[in-house]
Amino acid sequence: MGQYEQALPLFQQALEIHGKSLGTDHPNYALFLNNLALLYTATNCPEEALKLMQEAADIDLKTISTIFSISTDKERLNYVKQNYHKVETFLSLVFQHFPNSPEAVQSAYNLILRRKAIATETAILQKIALLSQQYAHLATKLQQWQQIRQQLAKRCFDIPTPEQLPYYQQEIKSLEQQAENLERELNIPELNLEKELQNADFRTIALELPQGTTLIEFIRFNNHNFQAIPANGDTQSFPPRYLAFILPAQAPEQLTMIDLGEAEPINKLVKEFRESVENPRGLSVAVFKKKEDISPKIELSKLIFDKIKPYLTQELIICPDGELNCLPFEILPTDKGSYLMDEYRCNFLNVGRDILRFKAKIPAKVTYPLVIANPDYNLASPENTPSTAENEEKFPFKPSLRDLATSRQGQIFNSLPGTEIEGEKIAKILRVKPVTAAKALKPLVSKAQKAPYILHIATHGYFLGDITPELDTINQNFMLSSLSASERFQVGTMQNPLLRSGLAFAGVNTMLNGGKLPEEAEDGLLTSLDVQSINLAGTELVVTSACETALGDLYTGETLIGLRRSFIQAGAKTVIISLWKVDDVATTILMQYFYYYLLKAKLSKAEALRKAKSSLQRLTIAKMRSQWLTEDAIKSAEKHSIGIAAHLRELSQKSDLERPYEAPKYWAAFICLGNPAGLPLLPQASKGQNLN
Asked: Is Coiled coil tagged as a keyword (predicted)?
């Protein structure tokens, strides 16, 4: 302590010198402010420390605004990762010394509103600006950037011959450099990010929240040890923790900060909970009856929900962070023995600041809804005759990769005939024709001239986690030609985390097996990288009726890097995404309910999804008999899939009172992210059967 006190006047003197020589807006001056604040905290002067950290945060906001206006998305993400410790130190100070100070808690939440997911915010603001007439001269460069990004994604999955290896990595690096250069040229230096973020104030947010709504902002942070002396071997951080900031509508003075405890046990329970409810999409003829382990659910409810319950209203906007992005909040149990969904209405945002964008008017060209379902994953050019059998026998699929692989030689995406049934039913409701089989091509989305009013995609989704060490070694030694299709798929994604999640379109299996696709099919894989560069401004709703589209790579200070972020960046106002692998028939019925409540009952998007989940949960065999279990319905399903028809026939033999899709694994995977409001311009729905 004595050494710290002796150092104080020296730090104060250094701060004064830097202020005079650099100016008090310089980033290095902010660095000295933060260092002096740490010293004040170590000498038990937290009030002085808080003032200095607030001053430093204001300077950093100016720096961020300048840097982000001229940098690429990758550079912004790296900047956030390298500098987010400043946010965590601020939160640590408030958590440890001012948990009951309204002013300090307000400052902490304001900092979160101005720092969380700001790389995403910048990309959205840039896109909005580029769509305005003011920057019409950049349209050609925007198109070039999109084309380069598509080439880059395709090359990452190509299979170079030994002769091509020296040029393969060189070409990828060249494409990456071209894309980054074009992205910089598309930047808009006069974009006032600082002003936009300054407007993100807890008072403004509270006043924008609909009456009766409560916003819950979760934040995971590394808890700084201010008394640590590294020379003595002290650790500089305590275990990471979760905080929840509770903000009721129209009452900013009631902002509350709640400590949820250490992050590790919560993260462990989230993983266990998800594993207890997950079920792969694809038909299972048996109706699952295995009793679920509810202990992770109960423990999570105690750690999270019970602590914040006294502050909640029935309408909730939830902004997760860390592993909580993967938690199905709606099926946490309440003390009444029901699900959270039964007592509360939940919608999800990346950060509370997003609510300020709901009223923004974006110039956009919008066209009819687009429904894509059951692509022909094996679509190939007529002259294509790939043979991967010998390679598959030599290098069989590893068990860890079988979530994407099938037993058929060379394929990694199974046909999903159930999605065609879904596509036909949803398209009928939307009064459009579904695009299926060989016509379900990637360019329908990636090269659309106008944004569809609603985009519904029923296909395979994928998310690949960490690459195994074996595949990393193979990649480094350029042994790609020795890999099976699914292994090449995983190695290809190592080039960019945005390639590790996406949606499958026609021809994807042919591409991954080294075959030739029709030119109009491109590569058959719509990755998160592709989605980032398309234009969905004006798209009211994107529904990804697929597996794991809500998942992604956790990135410090940002939302999950994956499809959920990319669709929002592309301009979609609301995205319906899934947390795990979903069942074919159950999802088809769920989506029918969703569109009925959205278009016929004219409910909000979030409420339509909640009601659809509840309806599927309560759906009895008796109710199914009139639509799904008639002989005509079963014969119609048989045209698409013998397995689905057999499943429906089996259900028809069961008791009228049975609820085949009562378990949460059938309906709880889907969440509503973004603007929860209803459709402002309702397209005419068909006069379909009332689902209630």
From this structure: yes
Q: Are 143 and 534 within 8 A, CB to CB? A: no
Q: Is 360 left (phi over 0), alpha (psi -120 to 50) or beta?
A: beta
Judge: domain 2-123, CATH 1.10.260. Answer: no
User: What is the three-state SS of 61-95?
Assistant: HHHHHHHHCCCCHHHHHHHHHHHCHHHHHHHHHHH
Give how far Cα 524 sits from Cα of 7, 381, 440, 503, Å: 62, 13, 9, 9
| Nearest of 638, 572, 636 to residue 605 by alpha carbon | 572
Q: Which two tokens stand for residue 147?
A: 């084309």
CB 211 within 8 A of CB 249: yes
| Pair of tokens at residue 207 | 């006043």
The residue count of the chain comes to 692
How do strand 574-578 and strand 561-562 relate by DSSP bridges? unpaired
- The string of pLDDT tens digits covering residues 6-33 is 777 777 877 888 788 888 899 999 999 9
Specify whether the CB–CB gap between 480 and 399 falls below 8 A.
no
The pLDDT tens digits of the residues spanning 412-458 come to 788 888 899 999 999 999 999 999 999 999 999 999 989 999 999 99
Rounded to two decimals, what is the model's pTM?
A: 0.88
SS3 at position 261: strand
Q: CA 425: distance to chain centroid?
A: 27
The dihedral of CA 280, 285, 287, 291: what is its sign? negative
CB atoms within 10 A of CB 567: 27
Task: Say how far apart CA 503 and CA 416 lie, in whole Å.
Answer: 13
Q: For residues 394 and 538, what is the distance between their CA atoms, to the nearest angstrom?
A: 49
Quote the DSSP letter at residue 233.
Answer: T
